[in-house]
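User: I'm designing a mutation panel for DUF7793 domain-containing protein and want to avoid disrupting the core. Could you give me a predicted structure to guide residue selection? Please restate the sequence first so the numbering is unambiguous.

Assistant: Good idea. Sequence first, for numbering, then the predicted structure tokens:
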Amino acid sequence: MDSIENKFALYTLNGGLLHIRYYKDIVINHEAAIRIVADRLKLQNGIYYPALCDIRGVEEVDKPGRDYLAREGSTLLKAVAFIVGDPMSDILSYFYLKTTKPSIPTKAFQDMDEAKLFLEKYI
């Protein structure tokens, strides 16, 4: 299996990199966060990957969702690059990075190529 999809995102494995593209206007609450992580882990099948997360479609992440993602969201990940676009996704990533202090290398980028370059050393 090299891809999986749910109502929140499309997950694909390509060249040793996990791509996660969230759909437009997504709101992530605790239940959504659980499903997002569970589906990702199912696709990864016990293997660690660096992840490229396109969060430009995420509208909101509530506190229980953020808390769950902070605890469980880095499981089986080597590093994470967030792709941000509009001010909302940029604010969400900044807030997440400042408040959760991820245990793995994590950065936000507006440029896809820069994000991939950051992740290359973790492939």
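For picking mutation sites, this is relevant: DSSP finds four helices and eight strands in the chain. The mean pLDDT is 92.
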